[in-house]
Design the sequence.
């Protein structure tokens, strides 16, 4: 088990965003967390990566308690959080964006940066074509790819993707999900947050359904995809 | 075996750059030998002084995206520190100078600490307040700073029996300091620290998710900028031989800021160009005295309108529009 979340709670002021959720992610899995707007999906990721304060619960990563660590320390252990809304650096070129992914590593060599960049370009050939373009001039889908690629540059063990399909055309969404599968093949573990439940459950090994800050269902991706309650709530049937 | 043309071009380019740089520095070093009138030497000294001031402000405003408009305060701390140390403790300039920088840096940290969570206009207001507090302390602490009378008769630096009293000689002090500042800053900006600063400027949330300790890097950035403003101040007071609190008012802070904006924020050459232009303008516009401030204002408004990235801001210029896309202008804070 690479990530273990137990009884995690997050409050915003007096409003409880998450009330005691527990989930686990195994090495090499894609685990998805689905739910509607305001269910607490983003809060979950923010709390795991330390960007949001936890009101209670514990988070363990590779057996180590990371509940009270600072965001940079959590990132250093090998968790990469690709935040919602892409958050690329618009004024920097694609290459500079990717180099920024290694900024936490004090002693990284130039060769290592080049090696990782080559690895990333094998997965994202589109980005290689745009290597000297500004991040802000990329299309929405390319920006999302860049955000994921920048995360890959951190060489993380666990990638947490927050709504990578947000605001993208269906055909691009498929491309992004293909990439997610390729990233899994490259040996990464992925925790994926999605509103696009159908897509997410198709690629995921396991899934959790989040409603109003609580987990109501969990199971294998395909099982949830055929679960009546999930179908009614998220797949419009 | 022939070397591929692209690689040999690269070497030539780098070799070119280095030799041009050395040539430029040699020319700058020869200027005082031309026996220019001391008025002209004075203008050159001021330009060099302001390249450090505007450059250090640019490290804060241009590279980490924090907004400091109270830079004159740190300048003032440096100036008073070296003046007081040399007048009251008879400390040699060469020891007083680094202390001036360090003290400004410590005050920079004190200002930065409570404001690290603030952004944009809120941080700007805090720096504005800090700058005024520093000026008011200088104005009212009679026994230490001479209050409204200021401090006079600040001794000139002496090195191996050589006295730096005239601007011809003092030029070298400013030249060495601004060269050290330039190359040191360049090195830092191109390092991991610089990348962390730029990532904070571009998107703080993304920087945090990439594992950048934003608080620490922002504090270090502020301290580095304040340090060099302190060094500039420490070098300024023995040059001018007289300082008083009104030299470090908010007007001065805006003056430095205007050089950064006109030259181009977030570029190394920008503040240098800005310092040259604004100082030359000051001299050209002497005949119309205070009305020259109106000219500055018009210039800044025109710049914001026509070239918001500043004169040297090539990377974000109209030429690079394709690279950055049109939407960028709208998002720019």
Sequence:
């Amino acid at each position: 088990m690479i990530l273990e979340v137990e009884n995690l709670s997050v409050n915003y002021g007096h409003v409880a965003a998450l009330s005691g959720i527990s989930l686990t992610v195994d090495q090499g899995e894609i685990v998805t967390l689905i739910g509607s707007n305001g269910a607490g999906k983003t809060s979950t990721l923010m709390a795991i990566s330390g960007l949001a304060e936890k009101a209670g619960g514990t988070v363990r990563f590779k057996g180590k308690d990371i509940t009270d660590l600072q965001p940079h320390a959590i990132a250093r252990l090998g968790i990469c959080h690709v935040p919602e809304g892409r958050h690329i650096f618009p004024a920097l070129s694609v290459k500079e964006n990717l180099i920024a992914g290694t900024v936490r590593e004090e002693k990284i060599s130039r060769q290592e940066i080049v090696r990782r960049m080559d690895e990333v370009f094998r997965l994202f050939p589109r980005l290689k074509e745009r290597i000297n373009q500004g991040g802000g001039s990329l299309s929405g889908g390319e920006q999302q790819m860049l955000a994921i690629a920048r995360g890959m540059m951190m060489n993380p063990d666990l990638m947490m993707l927050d709504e990578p399909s947000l605001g993208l055309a269906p055909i691009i969404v498929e491309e992004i999900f293909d990439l997610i599968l390729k990233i899994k093949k490259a040996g990464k573990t992925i925790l994926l947050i999605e509103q696009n439940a159908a897509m997410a459950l198709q690629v995921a090994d396991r899934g959790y359904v989040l409603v109003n800050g609580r987990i109501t269902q969990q199971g294998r991706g395909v099982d949830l995809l055929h679960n009546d309650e999930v179908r009614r709530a998220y797949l419009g049937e | 075996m022939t070397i591929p043309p692209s690689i040999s071009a690269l070497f030539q380019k780098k070799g070119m750059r280095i030799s041009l740089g050395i040539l430029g520095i040699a020319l700058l070093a020869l200027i005082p030998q031309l026996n220019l009138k001391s008025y002209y030497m004075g203008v050159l000294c001021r330009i060099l002084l302001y390249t450090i001031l505007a450059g250090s402000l640019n490290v804060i405003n241009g590279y980490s995206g924090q907004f400091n408009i109270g830079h004159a305060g740190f300048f003032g701390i440096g100036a008073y520190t070296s003046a007081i140390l040399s007048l009251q403790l008879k400390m040699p300039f060469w020891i007083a100078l680094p202390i001036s920088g360090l003290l400004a840096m410590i005050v920079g940290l004190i200002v930065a600490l409570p404001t690290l969570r603030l952004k944009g206009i809120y941080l700007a207001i805090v720096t504005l307040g800090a700058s005024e507090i520093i000026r008011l302390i200088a104005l009212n602490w009679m026994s230490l700073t001479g209050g409204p009378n200021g401090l006079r008769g600040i001794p000139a630096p002496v090195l191996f029996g050589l006295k730096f009293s005239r601007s011809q000689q003092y030029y070298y002090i400013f030249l060495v300091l601004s060269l050290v500042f330039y190359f040191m800053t360049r090195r830092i900006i191109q390092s991991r620290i610089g990348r962390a600063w730029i990532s904070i400027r571009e998107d703080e949330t993304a920087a945090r998710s990439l594992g950048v300790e934003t608080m620490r890097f922002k504090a270090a950035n502020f301290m580095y900028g304040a340090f060099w403003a302190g060094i500039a101040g420490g070098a300024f007071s023995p040059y001018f031989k007289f300082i008083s609190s009104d030299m470090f008012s908010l007007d001065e802070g805006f003056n430095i800021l205007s050089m950064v904006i006109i030259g181009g924020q977030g570029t190394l050459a920008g503040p240098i160009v800005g310092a040259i232009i604004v100082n030359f303008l000051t001299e050209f516009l002497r005949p119309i005295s205070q009305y020259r401030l109106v000219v500055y204002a018009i210039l800044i408004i025109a710049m914001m309108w026509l070239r918001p990235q500043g004169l040297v801001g090539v990377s974000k210029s109209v030429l690079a529009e394709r690279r950055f896309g049109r939407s960028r202008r709208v998002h720019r804070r």
Summary: Strands of chain A lie at 3-12, 15-25, 30-34, 56-61, 64-65, 79-82, 158-162, 189-194, 206-211, 214-220. Chain A has a mean pLDDT of 88.
